[in-house]
Specification:
Helix 3 packs antiparallel against helix 5 and helix 18 packs antiparallel against helix 19. Helices cover about 45% and strands about 10% of the residues. The protein folds into four domains: about 100 residues, Phosphorylase Kinase, domain 1 (2-Layer Sandwich); about 170 residues, Transferase(Phosphotransferase), domain 1; about 120 residues, Poly(a)-polymerase, middle domain (Orthogonal Bundle); about 90 residues, no CATH class. With about 550 residues, it is α+β, with helices and mostly antiparallel strands. The chain has a five-stranded antiparallel β-sheet with strand order 1-2-3-6-5, with helices on one face. Strands 4-9-8-7 form a four-stranded mixed β-sheet. The two termini are about 50 Å apart.
């Protein structure tokens, strides 16, 4: 329906019961509330109590039939699910369109503040059911679109039912005009906002008429403009907000202004999350934050930065488990990325060298020795080692990582760095593979510094003349600074620059835009660290050295 509805002024306002008089199978009971978008009533039918939502038709040209068809498809798809109640019937009259669903007395919003109050076990049970409801509908290619505590119903025996699937509401909303949000989503007038941040787009994104139907456009994508459909990720964000409200005794993590600030990286709901008494729920990182560290890595500033990041919940279960389809996995990508970005130059080189050794020496023996395992080995070694990692310790620390990996394989246990009770090697290695890996790691460790020659890149570099090696190293350093500079611009500039680079028609135009938009920011007095080459080289020299490096295949050498 998009923005077609928000500007229409009603010519006549009637009480909700007036719209039910032409329905002989329903008997009006009482009103459940009224907003500009919907009038809601409880009614009696032969099958029991039902909720009737009434949309008053002020514009006969609205394409209601397409929305009715989609609602019927959702009803058919979700038939048989245990935690989802779609709208079971839709009726279109001359003056109004009506939606029916089963009546449930209490929403989660009501239940949180009703005695007897929910205990911790009951809250976890409700949270589990909400995730199961998402899994059920997403497996059937159905997204909800408006998950909030008012749309999560709770029965007398704490069974959860997800209701009011909102396929007819807009996917994308303007970020500078709250009227659409208020009209479609703020039905409770609480001003809470659990809409995923990516659904708020720049004010230039508008809902327009496409083949006679108002559809939401995704103007955040490059290339051809396409209709904006709901995604599971949008629902997962909203569900996380509901779970937060559940465990904080009804404290909402976001209102509209806070969510828009969160979208712009100017707000974090961490203070709300700290109200959760159960540390296992508050953060899977809680034990990691409090872990005693005798050494300097990671530093306090890194820990504080990670506190401001979130976690992802992905619908991926443990492979081979009988309950794989019901299991979810917590992804700590943002926290791990912050840790890697805190590495100094020597730590980065140790990480790169270990990845190369694993790729060329260990993966042929066992494909399950992945880059994620390498990353966790690196984290553990850096944390356990005392003092700052110095340049002259590169080889010694690299050998330490090989020894640590060998010990983990011997014991069959590599604790996840962030959540130590997770064993990353569980079920991954056969006895034959474990024995072969231990034997090969023994060989690598005894080779000492010569182990680096097993890396094809290092071996090639060892054969180069001094001048040729300097050229390649300069290309590498320049490429790294260009890459890091792009991600060091202020957040309010980043999206604009990224969009401009996406519009470049060829590499030369992309580079010219990069020089115009990124380098002036980086060349200001040391805003985000030093970029010596970018600050001292002229634009023409940077472009010349890059083109020469690419033409000679220097980039392929580093990628091997």
């Amino acid at each position: 329906m998009g923005n077609q509805l928000t500007g229409i002024a009603p010519s006549q306002i009637l009480p909700v019961e007036q719209y039910l008089t032409d329905l002989p199978d329903l008997e009006f009971d009482n009103s459940l509330g009224s907003t500009r978008f919907f009038k809601v009533a409880k009614a009696k039918s032969k099958e029991g109590n039902v909720v009737v939502k009434v949309f008053v038709i002020h514009d006969p040209s609205l394409p209601l039939s397409s929305y009715k068809t989609r609602l019927e498809e959702i009803c058919v798809n979700l038939k048989g699910t245990s935690n989802c109640i779609p709208f079971q019937k839709s009726v279109q009259q001359e003056k109004a369109a009506l939606l029916y669903r089963q009546y449930v007395k209490d929403s989660l919003y009501d239940r949180i503040s009703t005695r007897p109050f929910l205990n911790t076990v009951e809250k976890k049970w409700i949270a589990c059911q909400l995730l199961c409801a998402l899994n059920q509908c997403h497996k059937l290619k159905v997204c909800h679109g408006d998950i909030k505590s008012e749309n999560v119903m709770i029965t007398g025996w704490n069974w959860l039912l997800l209701t009011d699937f909102a396929s007819f509401k807009p996917t994308y909303l303007p970020d500078d005009n709250p009227s659409d949000f208020s009209y479609f989503f703020d039905t409770s007038r609480r001003r809470t906002c659990y809409i995923a941040p990516e659904r708020f787009v720049d004010s230039s994104s508008r809902n327009v008429e496409v083949t006679g139907q108002g559809q939401n456009l995704d103007l955040t994508a490059t290339g051809e403009v396409k209709t904006g459909d709901l995604t599971p990720a949008m629902d997962i964000f909203s569900a996380g907000c509901v779970i937060t409200e559940l465990f904080t005794e009804g404290s909402p993590p976001f209102d509209l202004s806070q969510l828009l600030s969160y979208r712009n990286r100017e707000y974090s709901p961490w203070k709300i999350l700290e109200k959760i008494e159960d540390t296992n729920v508050r953060s899977v990182l809680d034990d990691w934050f409090k872990r005693e560290r005798e050494n300097s890595w990671p530093g306090v500033d890194v820990l504080n930065a990670i506190k401001e990041t979130g976690v992802f919940v992905v619908s991926v279960g443990r492979s081979g488990s009988k309950e794989e389809t019901l299991q979810w996995r917590i992804s700590l990508t943002l926290a791990e990325r912050s840790l890697v970005r805190s590495f100094n130059d020597t730590q980065v080189k140790v990480y790169a060298a270990l990845k190369m050794l694993v790729k060329h020496e260990l993966k042929p023996i066992c494909a399950n020795i992945t880059s994620y395992i390498v990353k966790n080995v690196i984290f553990w070694v850096f944390e356990k080692r005392s003092g700052t990692v110095q340049r002259n310790e590169f080889v010694g620390i690299l050998l330490l990582t090989l020894v640590y990996l060998k010990d983990c394989i011997c014991f069959g246990c590599l604790p996840n760095y962030m959540i130590p009770f997770r064993n990353l090697l569980r079920g991954l290695l056969s006895q034959v593979e474990a024995r072969a890996l231990r034997e090969h790691l023994d060989i690598l460790i005894t080779e000492d510094s010569n182990v680096l020659l097993r890396c094809p890149l290092v071996y090639k570099m060892a054969e180069l003349l001094e001048d040729a090696l300097k050229e390649r190293l300069l290309f590498r350093k320049l490429s790294e600074e260009l890459f890091l500079a792009f991600f060091s611009v202020p957040p309010h500039e980043f999206d604009k620059i990224e969009h401009s680079l996406h519009l470049a028609r060829n590499p030369d135009e992309c580079f010219q835009k990069y020089v115009k938009l990124v380098l002036p920011v980086i060349r200001e007095p040391n805003p985000f660290g030093t970029f010596p080459l970018l600050k001292t080289m002229a634009d023409e020299e940077i472009q010349s050295r890059l083109y020469e490096g690419f033409s000679r295949g220097y980039d392929n050498m580093w990628m091997e």
